[in-house]
Amino acid sequence: MMMPxxxxxxxxxxxxxxxxxxxxxxEVHNLRLLMxxxxxxxxxxxxxxxxxxxxxxxxxxxxxxxxxxxxxxTKGEFGAGINIDRKYYYSEDYPNDGWRLSDITTQRSEEExxxxxxxxxxxxxxxxxxxxxxxxxxxxxxxxxxxxxxxKIVFPDDYDFLNISIPAYRVFESEDKAKALKKxxxxxxxxxxxxxxxxxxxxSEDGNKEIVDLFDQKLFSFPKPARLIKHFVNTNxxxxxxxxxxxxxxxxxxxxxxxxxxxxxxxxKYLCVQLPELTDEKxxxxxxxxxxxxxxxxxxxxxxxxxxxEEINVEIxxxxxxxxxxxxxxxxxxxxxxxxxxxxxxxxLKTQDLGFKVLKLADSNFKQWxxxxxxxxxxxxxxxKLFVDPVSEFATIENMVYELLLKSGKDLNSPxxxxxxxxxxxxxxxxxxxxxxxxEIIDSVIAEKPIKVVALDKLFKGNDQLKTNxxxxxxxxxIEFKTI
Length: 484
Fold this sequence. Notes:
The protein is α+β, with helices and mostly antiparallel strands. Helix content is 36%, strand content 16%. It contains 14 helices and 18 strands. It has helices at 2-12, 28-39, 144-149, 173-184, 204-215, 226-233, 252-264, 284-287, 293-327, 333-350, 377-386, 397-407, 439-447, 464-476; strands at residues 18-23, 44-51, 67-74, 82-83, 89-91, 94-102, 120-121, 128-129, 153-154, 168-172, 190-191, 242-245, 269-272, 416-419, 422-425, 430-433, 452-455, 480-483. The strands form six sheets. Strands 14-15-16-17-18 form a five-stranded mixed β-sheet, sandwiched between helices. The protein has a four-stranded antiparallel β-sheet with strand order 5-6-10-9. A hairpin with a 2-residue loop joins β5 and β6. The longest helix has 35 residues, at 293-327.
């Protein structure tokens, strides 16, 4: 079951993408071998132990298996990182570049670094600061003066607002941004991701609580908590990418992505896949009307979306109140900047995309040609009659729109606009004629100046002149025209 899905996952994964697979003790060893074979041993990222529950007593051998193992692989270019929320000081001597303090001592002893074992003297106050024999200074006696002249050394008496007892090393905000830009392609400071998962990611019981909060009953057994998924999504240094979940289950991934976008204004998108697996007839889910797990997934996303929208509305009101209070204060530059930042935050919240589409895998809306065995001319003639109209008897206009959109290489999230009797895809990229064709409609289509037009051939039945004129008009207008 897993091998074909993992091969497909590798094909779909971006070069700088990453995959996380959660598994328990029973098959973790086989999964690791399988992942090595598919992704390559050199692309192994890490194993994250997730504590899913507290210890149970009624277990085999008296040993409670409380952990699941989240195995991670990449295709070779992934670089993890978590945003660092750093506080910078702004002082009169450095008004245009914020700065922070860093430890100026090292883990080296005076025996290891004798040139860094010296008494540091504050040139302004003449105060002396002896070195620690077990943690000498990070600068040597020879380089101290150079660092001091560049403003890199800060003494306890330099600023009234600092609470330090020994000298510290100054790191400028511009230095942090330049370093982050070189390493991550962004000015946001990052830190390495630890395989140790913090308590904040939650356990299975937290996932259960999320379901109960949304549905007022437990409909799904042992769902992952949204905070766990958010933690792993956050390891990516970008905030605009696609998260694919092969086993949507209760819809935790969609919930986590929407919530994370609300928190940081990101534009991440989710794609959740779930087979219409039947729920147990004795289960709470079945009794509540959810006949398949896919139905639970969809309803979870709907309810999570509604809950997040309500939270956004509350936050907007709070920010608006804060803006009103600031507008009642003295209009200092700092005040004005804060007001503009808050207004930007409101616009960001208002434009948060919480929409989603539900698409089902189904048979084609167009008849499939079946090869006739032998040389039965009568059977071949009968089949050709069926294909005078290639549209299946079960087809619907909406389903045909999406099928042709996919077959034309367009994204399923492409904007679709209904205009008169045709469908406009991605503004002027593609127009679909599926309902009727008249000279007036053809003129309207050409006036839109699309790149390509696809029409059902049956729309021109009995009107060869219209079809011929349409082909010539499209050609003259530089529009690619195709009939099916």
